[in-house]
Write a structure and sequence with these properties.
The complex is a heterodimer of chains A (350) and B (585). With 350 residues, chain A is of the alpha/beta class. Helices cover 40% and strands 18% of the residues of chain A. Chain A contains 15 helices and 14 strands. The longest helix of chain A has 18 residues. Chain B is built from 20 helices and 13 strands. In chain B, strands 3, 4, 5, 6, 7, 8, 9, 10 and 11 form a nine-stranded antiparallel β-sheet that branches. Chain B is extended and about 105 Å long. Classes of the chains: A alpha/beta (350), B alpha+beta (585). At the A-B interface, α1, α2, β2 and α11 of A face α8, α9, α12 and β13 of B.
């Protein structure tokens, strides 16, 4: 019978594939990690293959946390060679790496990602301070006597009369996103410290203070718009009253439709982010396993391609892709460290 | 129903002609008419949404199916296209095929000498993969080296979007009156009586609008200011802001009030280009009859041209907020005017793998990945699912255990797909050590997803075969197994296949379980076997949708169209199978 044959064939195929499963040799670099660094690492991967370096590395978009977990799981061809990260590796992850035998990690800081608050070109020009953003988005604010009460601000003008008399409507990333974590750390925490009542709370009760700046209001003023930044851009275009939170590269690509708000008097522009003047920017990293260099073919060449002037230099190909590259001096230092294959030590200040 | 149930005494006599009866009848007719109207309205709403959705995707996706190219005549030199001066395949593969294209572009625009402009012309107009087609041709026929060859070179995604009208609004007008130009290169003066009056009026109106908007905003702030208590420190800073805004608005109004005064055009206002004598001038300041400009593409000659022999091109998106500068656009306009720019069907979209350059990115990797995954799924699912269905339906004793199995199969069909991804990660990758990102694992995971669907559909199909068929077979002495395999199964096959195809279509559109087993990845090479790294069609859509370049938005919509076509074909096939082979009793 036809069906019988098929069933037997399938069973055999399954058994065969499982039997031959372990230890697949690998001639291709494998990278995992942040979706924010993904557009840049993939560009380098493609250029690397184009320049005859070998097969293009496989770059997975797993998110920073998931990526570092895979990266730190062990050494050998079953584990990725590099991890993209939109924040620095933390102590726990580093310890995890050490425990699993990933002893020598090379850290490459590739540049910055500016977080921008932006609105439609049809909307008003926004100039915001971190304190104002905190007052707009915090779940609870201190009242006159310093007790935390639900955020009473409905319109931007409730916060400061110079702001537009428009409903507060902010589209931003969901809690699972690394972008959201960065936004909290870079904007909400410093914003909270500006309020005297919360600054006092920070000294007296650190936990309560952390809870205050980490909580974003849930009464409709802040809208989880999903991980897809293009979607936020489209919604801003359709609704001039709304403000969106997303990465600088999306602002740059859509400059015809949206404009960035100045934060603390500095507009989100390439030079301001690179020089550190624009304070809502986070560094982006790629971590490599030194133990894989020489084992996985082409890994050393790939690292060399990543730090080359062609990629990360002032006129490199990553600039037009939206990466805010490092200033020349810092790049030289990063490049020297990476080329010398200097591994991270636990004293590196993480 | 028996006659005894109808007690004649219980039947009320109904006068069908009474007013009450007629009113009841009318009410029933009205109720039915209302119900029909609701039905039609519901259908219309659903249809409208479908049309909107598909229409939106088609409009957004169409640019993905065409690509812009520029026709260039190049003379590839051996020193350029070969790494060691020979015509061996390896030497030719490593050559720089963009070099001859750049040389040809340089001939077209000999005035481009500065480093920045050359970079723009060579790397921002021409695609990074423009040389690939030439490489293919020369590797097939090395005799072309040293001879003039006409090539159609791929343009960069931004240039392509501009030529398709997606980068900026563009208004082209034929010039009115004569035009006198003071020079053919550098900074020039353009004189034309009254020709620029309309443009100037538009600019003045924009100034007035801007002033009004600023004043309105300042007025609102001033109003709210009054509400603040005297002595509030915010009052002074806000007042300073209001004053600054008001004086800015007054300055704008003063400029707008002088209709003849020339205006300077900056990077935040729409750009005005003038195409004349085979060159292009960008206007830097404009008066009613005279304009100052900078030549972007040199003119054949200076002097006076007659009415109708020159054109103005207005680019509505200001230069400061688009990817291409006026210089880029001037080159593109010049090449277009010379007929060098052509639009082609983008076969590349179907024949190349993923890329970070939108104009080079294609679906082949995703398509092949999806096919391999579906193949694994089908090979596993169909036999297992049908065998399980036959056993459960025809052979299994009806007891608690089989009831439990049945309930669990139904539950399995309702499990969210991400759970199967987690299972795949834990079992296939971590326990069995199968390779990450492989269609084999993707197929295994999706098989788990589709299996309940197939079992349920197959059981329904088997159940629909009338018992008389089975009994007739048993009656002439067939064994139970013979009756099932020779008679029942063939009749149930159309139903089983329909269920399978619908299940497969479901699996084809799944992304979530593939995320966890590493198939959401940037993979340039097209997979050759089920153990090589691959993505799938919906994953490709997901990845492209998250990239910042606008051209990738078109690619995303284009890929969605391709996926929809596949799904329509599969579902259509299911319908055809059912129509053709289904038997009714």
């Amino acid at each position: 019978m036809n069906t019988k044959l098929l069933a037997t064939a399938a069973a055999l195929a399954l058994a065969g594939s499982l039997a031959s499963a372990p230890a697949f040799a690998r001639d291709q670099i494998r990278i995992v990690g942040s979706s924010t660094v993904y557009p840049f690492t993939t560009t380098v991967a493609e250029q690397f293959a184009r320049a005859g370096g070998g097969r293009a590395p496989i770059v997975e978009s797993t998110g920073t946390g998931g990526g570092l977990k895979l990266f730190c799981a062990g050494v050998g061809v079953d584990f990725p060679d590099a991890a993209n990260a939109s924040r620095r590796i933390n102590k726990n992850e580093f310890a995890d790496c050490q425990k699993n035998g990933v002893k020598e990690i090379i850290e490459l800081k590739v540049g910055f990602d500016g977080l921008t608050l932006a609105n439609s070109k049809k909307g008003p020009d926004l100039k915001l301070t971190k304190e104002q953003v905190f007052r707009a988005l915090a779940k609870q604010l201190p009242d006159a006597s310093g007790n935390l009460v639900a955020n009473p601000n409905r319109n931007w003008s409730d916060i400061d009369p110079s702001l537009p008399n428009q409903k507060i409507e902010v589209l931003g990333p969901p809690p699972t996103s690394g972008t959201r974590d960065s936004f909290l750390e870079l904007v909400m925490e410093p914003g909270a410290e500006k309020l005297p009542a919360l600054a006092a709370l920070k000294k007296s009760d650190r936990k309560a203070f952390d809870a205050a700046w980490k909580s974003i209001r849930e009464d409709g003023a802040y809208i989880d718009a999903g991980e897809n930044d293009n979607l936020i851009v489209q919604k801003l275009d359709a609704n001039p009253a709304a403000v969106g939170i997303f990465g600088y590269s999306f602002l740059e690509e859509n400059a015809g439709r949206i404009k960035g708000a100045a934060i603390e008097g500095v507009a989100p522009e390439f030079d301001a982010i690179a020089s550190g003047q624009y304070s809502v920017a986070r560094p982006l990293y790629v971590y490599f396993k030194k133990q894989h260099v020489g084992v996985v073919p082409g890994l050393d060449k790939f690292i060399a391609e990543y730090v080359s002037d062609k990629a990360l230099g002032e006129n490199g190909y990553l600039g037009p892709k939206g990466l805010v590259t490092l200033p020349a001096q810092e790049l030289a230092k990063v490049r020297a460290d990476v080329q010398a294959m200097k591994p991270m030590t636990s004293e590196a200040g993480i | 129903m028996t006659d005894a149930a109808l007690d004649p005494g219980a039947v009320r006599a109904i006068d069908l002609a009474s007013d009450a009866s007629r009113a009841r009848l009318r009410r029933r007719y009205r109720a039915e008419a209302r119900f029909r109207a609701y039905g039609i309205a519901a259908l219309a709403v659903a249809g409208l949404f479908l049309v909107l959705l598909v229409g939106d995707i088609v409009i957004k996706g169409l640019p993905a199916f065409t690509e812009s190219r520029v026709t260039l005549t190049v003379t590839p030199q051996l020193s350029q296209v070969s790494t060691d001066g020979t015509t061996g395949a390896d030497a030719l593969r490593g050559g720089d095929y963009a070099a001859p294209l750049r040389a040809s572009l340089q001939e077209l625009f000999p005035e481009v000498t500065s480093r920045q402009d050359r970079r723009r012309l060579f790397f921002e107009i021409l695609s990074g993969g423009a040389g690939d087609d030439l490489r293919r041709r020369i590797m097939a026929d090395p005799g072309l080296i040293g001879r003039p060859v006409t090539v159609s070179a791929l343009l960069d995604d931004s240039a392509d979007m501009y030529l398709k009208g997606r980068l900026t609004g563009r208004v082209e007008r034929t010039g009115r009156g004569t035009l006198a130009i003071s020079g053919a290169t550098g900074d020039v003066t353009l004189d034309s009586p009254g020709a620029f009056r309309d443009t100037l009026a538009t600019i003045k109106k924009a100034l007035r609008d801007e002033a009004a908007a600023i004043e309105a905003a300042a007025g609102r702030v001033a109003q709210r200011l009054e509400a603040l208590p005297v002595g509030d420190p915010r009052r002074a800073t806000a007042q300073a802001g209001v004053d600054a805004d008001r004086s800015r608005a007054a300055a704008l109004r003063a400029r707008a009030a002088a209709p003849e005064a020339p205006e300077v055009l900056g990077t935040d206002t729409p750009s005005e280009l003038v195409a004349v004598n085979g060159g292009i001038v960008k206007l830097t300041s404009i008066g009613p009859s005279q304009a100052q400009g900078r030549v972007l593409v040199p003119l054949g000659t200076a002097g006076t041209v007659s009415e109708g022999a020159w054109r103005t091109i207005t680019l509505l998106q200001p230069e400061g907020s688009r990817r291409l500068t006026d210089q880029h656009i001037a080159w593109l306009e010049d090449m277009r005017a010379e007929g060098l720019v052509t639009r082609h069907f983008a076969t590349r979209f179907f024949t190349s793998g993923d890329s970070r350059e939108p104009e080079l990115a294609g679906l082949l990797g995703g398509l092949v990945g999806s096919l391999l995954t579906m193949f694994v799924t089908l090979v596993l699912c169909l036999p297992t699912g049908v065998a399980a269905a036959i056993y459960l339906e025809e052979f299994a004793p009806k007891n608690r255990i089989t009831d439990l199995i049945e309930v669990n199969i139904n539950n399995l069909a309702a499990v969210p797909s991400i759970v199967f991804g987690l299972l795949g990660l834990a079992v296939f990758l971590n326990f069995f050590g199968l390779p990450r990102s492989a269609p084999l694992v993707g197929g295994l995971v999706l098989a788990l997803l589709v299996l309940p669907t197939i079992i349920i559909a197959s059981r329904a199909a088997l159940k629909a075969v009338p018992p008389s068929i089975r009994e007739a077979a048993l009656g002439v002495g067939a064994s139970h197994q013979q009756a099932v395999f020779h008679h029942v199964l063939p009749m149930a096959m159309p139903g089983i296949l329909t269920g399978t195809i619908i299940g497969m279509a479901h699996a084809l559109g799944e992304t979530a379980p593939l995320l966890l087993i590493g198939m959401v990845a940037f993979i340039v090479d097209t997979p050759q076997s089920v153990t090589q790294a691959a993505t799938a069609l919906p994953v490709q859509i997901y990845l492209w949708s998250d990239l910042p370049e606008p051209a990738f938005q078109a690619k995303t919509a284009g890929a969605i169209i391709v996926l929809l076509v596949f799904l329509f074909v599969m579902n259509g096939l299911a319908v055809v199978l059912r129509r053709k082979f289904e038997r009714r009793w």
